[in-house]
Amino acid sequence: RFIVHSNIPFSVTENWFFQHFLDEIHPSYQAPSHYVLSHSIMDSEIAHVQMEDIARLKGHKCLTYLLDGWEDKI
């Protein structure tokens, strides 16, 4: 979650400095590759968040749905 919420590229997990940092704080931890992070872990996190959203919405009778049609032209 730290990497996603900080807008850090997933490739950071393969950076030598990041790996050295992890070795210093937890030598036995092996960081996932950018592929595993962007596929398996993200897919699992998305499913978890969707289930939380569904459970939270089931408790409400009235909902408002808002769509923003704005588009960034970058």
Write the SSE topology.
Layout: H1 2-5, H2 16-25, H3 34-58
Sum up the structure in keywords.
mainly alpha; 3 helices; 74 residues; 53% helix
Description:
It is elongated and about 50 Å long. The model has no long low-confidence stretch (mean pLDDT 87). It is mainly alpha-helical and 74 residues long. The chain contains three helices and no strands. Helices cover 53% and strands 0% of the residues.
Number of helices: 3
Instruction: Estimate what percentage of residues fall within beta strands.
Output: under 5%
Helix content range: 40-55%
User: Average pLDDT, to the nearest integer?
Assistant: 87
Q: Largest sheet at a glance?
A: none
Low-confidence parts? none
How many β-strand stretches?
0
The coarse silhouette is: elongated
Structural class, judged by helices and strands?
mainly alpha
Summarize it.
The protein is an all-alpha fold and 74 residues long. It has 3 helices and no strands. The protein is elongated, with a radius of gyration of 18 Å.
